[in-house]
Amino acid sequence: MIRINLDVEMARKKISLGQLAEEINITNSNLSILKTGKAKAIRFSTLDAICKALNCQPGDILEYIEDESTNN
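Now predict its structure.
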């Protein structure tokens, strides 16, 4: 499973959803879907824009968590 930590990184940088959406030229609703972990995919261009805006690495936003059910 991939966990989205965008909300954590935004809080660290003290930037609102609206500010980030405007800076990376994406709708608030699409950024909200990503922030809440409801997105099924992310474009590399969007990830690139987010990382530039927040001055972070993709690993700061995306985290792999092993699904315990696959270990059995």
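The chain has a mean pLDDT of 93.
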